[in-house]
């Protein structure tokens, strides 16, 4: 556990604020690049950033293949499956709001898997908080999803991409917590992004992508995705997984859809209704309820 209690206390809130901007940066960048092409540029720049940080802070990468294998698998799930699934689902026609809703099932899926496979019982208030958070997300996105479903054809291909994203982020965070040996955060990030870079390059080749229009919006979205999301938010997420139990960490993901909706309202003038505001408050209450009843981190 990190020695800075102040950072541990506020890391989840900063993380979810940064994480919520993922759909916003995609909205800015994807008009000028296809999904896996955008992700390949992002992952390549991620590796350059973390190689620089490893050098500056004199952090060495492990020599053990076992340690590399752990992080390569974790990165393939947390980044490769999740980001590839989300971007491809939106590209296949699934509305961004509906994608966020479905991926937002992660906290409930995490709680169920922890209970099923690790026999880690959750207190009734924890389950109540998770369900309450889900109810808030449903309220927030119901109207948006209904309006979009009237004019959008939902395909099985798109839904399978969403399922890949949901399983990737859920299983990846659980695997990181339960099966990976402790590693320095910078080394962990470099190894995970190495696996993701290979996966998205494979996606570029298989889908015949590669073209980019270097519009200022694309450059801004790419820079934000690398420096803020991939560097800042990832380090916070890995620190949270290391310091806290899996269910508690996962419950914060409920806050991302409400924040994304608020950001879209501020930046793109998307409609914000009283029902959406009620959903936001319900989600925040659910996260507070679930984490208040969590046992102390070990």
Describe this entry's structure for a reader.
This protein is mainly alpha-helical and 298 residues long. It has helices spanning 5-19, 22-29, 35-56, 65-91, 96-103, 106-118, 124-149, 156-178, 185-207, 216-243, 246-251, 256-268, 274-292. Helices cover 78% and strands 0% of the residues.
Summary tags:
disordered C terminus; globular; 298 residues; 78% helix
Map the helices and strands:
Elements lengths: L4 H15 L2 H8 L5 H22 L8 H27 L4 H8 L2 H13 L5 H26 L6 H23 L6 H23 L8 H28 L2 H6 L4 H13 L5 H19 L6
How do you describe this structure in short?
The chain is mainly alpha-helical and 298 residues long. The chain is built from 13 helices and no strands.
Overall, the morphology is globular
Query: Rg from C-alpha positions?
Result: 19 Å
How would a crystallographer describe the biggest sheet? none
Q: What is the N-to-C succession of helices and strands? A: HHHHHHHHHHHHH
Mean pLDDT: 79
**Structural class by helix and strand composition:** mainly alpha
Total strand segments? 0
Terminus-to-terminus distance: 8 Å
Percent of residues in helical segments?
Answer: over 70%
Share of residues in strands: under 5%
Number of domains: 1
Which segments are poorly predicted (pLDDT under 50) over 5 or more consecutive residues? Answer: 293-298
How large is the count of helical segments? 13
């Amino acid at each position: 556990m990190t020695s800075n209690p102040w950072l541990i206390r506020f890391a989840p809130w900063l993380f979810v604020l940064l994480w919520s901007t993922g759909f916003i940066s995609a909205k800015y960048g994807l008009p000028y690049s296809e999904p896996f092409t955008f992700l390949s540029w992002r992952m390549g720049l991620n590796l350059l950033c973390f190689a620089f940080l490893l050098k500056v802070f004199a952090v060495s990468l492990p020599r053990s293949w076992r340690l590399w294998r752990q992080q390569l698998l974790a990165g393939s799930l947390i980044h490769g499956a999740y980001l590839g699934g989300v971007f491809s689902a939106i590209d296949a026609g699934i509305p961004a709001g509906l994608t966020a809703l479905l991926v937002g099932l992660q906290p409930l899926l995490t709680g169920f898997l922890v209970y099923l496979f690790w026999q880690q019982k959750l207190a009734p208030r924890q389950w109540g908080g998770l369900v309450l958070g889900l109810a808030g997300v449903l309220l927030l996105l119901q109207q948006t999803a209904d309006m979009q479903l009237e004019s959008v054809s939902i395909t099985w291909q798109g839904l399978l991409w969403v399922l890949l994203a949901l399983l990737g982020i859920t299983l990846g965070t659980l695997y990181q917590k339960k099966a990976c040996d402790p590693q320095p955060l910078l080394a962990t990030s470099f190894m995970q992004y190495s696996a993701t870079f290979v996966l998205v390059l494979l996606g570029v080749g298989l889908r015949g992508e590669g073209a980019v229009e270097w519009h200022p919006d694309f450059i801004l979205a790419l820079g934000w995705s690398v420096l803020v999301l991939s560097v800042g938010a990832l380090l916070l997420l890995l620190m949270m997984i290391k310091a806290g139990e899996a269910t508690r960490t996962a419950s914060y993901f409920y806050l991302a859809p409400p924040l994304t909706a608020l950001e879209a309202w501020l930046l793109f003038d998307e409609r914000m209704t009283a029902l959406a505001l009620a959903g936001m408050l319900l989600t925040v209450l659910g996260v507070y309820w679930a984490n208040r009843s969590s046992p102390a981190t070990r």
